[in-house]
Specification:
The protein is of the alpha+beta class and about 60 residues long. The chain has two helices and two strands, in the order ββαα. Helix content is about 50%, strand content about 20%.
Length: about 60
């Protein structure tokens, strides 16, 4: 696949990846979104109604 390069350690094990964002920006965004979601899965949640009320107050809406 063009635009994707794996970095390996001295034993040849893949340890990192470089992605050409010119060609693969959408894939990177999806991957990053998954990482963020995974990192937040244990955070406290609020209801949609509470979130909507807070957003409306913040932006001066009803």
């Amino acid at each position: 696949m063009t635009g994707v390069n794996f970095l390996t350690n001295a034993k040849g094990k893949k340890i990192a990846v470089q992605i050409d964002l010119t060609n693969h920006a959408a894939i990177w965004e999806d991957f990053y979104d998954c990482l963020v979601a995974e990192s937040r899965k244990e955070e406290a949640r609020i209801s949609w109604e509470t979130a909507k009320t807070k957003l409306n107050k913040k932006h001066g809406l009803k």
